[in-house]
Specification:
This protein is of the alpha/beta class. The protein has twelve helices and eight strands. The chain is elongated, with a radius of gyration of 21 Å. The structure holds NADP nicotinamide-adenine-dinucleotide phosphate (NAP). The site of NADP nicotinamide-adenine-dinucleotide phosphate (NAP) has 27 residues, from helix 1.
Length: about 270
């Protein structure tokens, strides 16, 4: 459904590169459909070299012939970047923003024209196609435009559409979540090392345990507590380990981590 569309990626940074990589490698888009921008010419040159896509440091030039404008710059510079394209955008374009903390209302105000707008929150596992992207749409956006956005982000993993009121929570959980899990993986691997396992073996065992546990939750639809109970035999070793997790306050710490990240997400767009 995206085969006829031209996409301008404004801000070809880390996330921009993840998007371009997946969109091309999954065959969702052809390189001729993409135009990227960055602040520095060297970054644009890197994209030309690596992906053979068109690019420029001129955002206005990038959006002129685009059907979809993908805003991937940092939220702090969004007003400046949007101001630089305002004269070149037109009514039949769709704007998709992945900027954390930048609301649909802020986007619409900055764009001025009543363009359809979609807010997306992807996460870094998108790099390997195991990402999660949450989408929310503005009131000018129709069903077909939401399906365009879903088709784009489906190339990065899973996509769901939610009300924008959940976005700070989504940012704190889904976007920051992989970092929290990496800390858990690192800590569990240290546990393996403490018990005598070689570090690489220990890390591989933890990664596979996490992958397996995550798939059990996602694919069996069972509550995590039930799945945990299945591992926990009376007077066995798992219950002793769980006792240590409770003693260390793991649950409370995790809840507070998500809550704090969500609070920070709320303040990002107003900086
Ligand atoms: N990283 C994540 O996990 C994640 C997850 C979800 C959403 N996001 C959102 O994704 C956005 C990008 O994050 P990131 O981690 O990819 O940041 P990043 O690597 O710093 O990329 C930002 C890009 O914007 C470019 N840029 C700066 N000023 C510009 C201008 N005036 N015109 C055009 N391009 C300009 C920079 O160009 P140069 O390279 O030339 O300096 C850079 O390539 C942010 O809004 C963030 O909130 C990130």
């Amino acid at each position: 459904m995206l085969k006829e569309k031209k996409i301008a990626v404004l801000g070809a940074g880390k996330m921009g590169e993840v998007l371009v990589t997946r969109l091309l490698s999954t065959g969702t888009l052809e390189k001729e459909q993409l135009f990227v921008t960055a602040k520095h010419e060297s970054r644009v040159a890197y994209f030309r070299e690596k992906f053979d896509v068109k690019g420029s440091t001129d955002n206005a030039e990038a959006v002129k012939n685009a059907d979809i404008i993908l805003l991937c710059v940092k939220p702090q510079i969004a007003p400046k970047v949007i101001a630089s394209i305002r004269e070149s955008i037109h009514q039949d374009q769709l704007v998709i923003s992945i900027m954390a903390g930048f609301t649909i209302e802020q986007l619409q105000k900055a764009i001025v024209l009543p363009l359809p707008v979609i807010r997306a929150m992807p996460n870094t596992p998108c790099e390997i196609g195991a990402g999660m992207t949450v989408l929310a749409s503005g009131n000018q956006t129709n069903g077909e435009q939401i399906r365009f956005a879903e088709a784009l982000f489906d190339s990065l993993g899973k996509t769901i559409v939610l009300d924008e009121k959940y976005f700070d929570a989504v940012t704190g959980l889904s976007a920051s979540g992989p970092a929290f899990i990496y800390v858990v993986i690192e800590a569990l691997a240290e546990g393996g090392v403490k018990c005598g396992l070689p570090r690489d073996v220990s890390t591989a065992l933890v990664a596979q345990a996490c992958l397996g546990a995550a798939r059990m939750v996602a694919e069996t639809n069972q509550h995590p507590a039930i799945l945990k109970d299945h591992v926990t035999t009376p007077a066995g070793c798992t219950i002793d380990g769980l006792l240590k997790l409770e003693e260390g306050g793991l649950r409370v710490t995790m809840i507070k981590a998500v809550d704090e990240a969500a609070r920070r997400a709320k303040s990002l767009g107003s900086e």
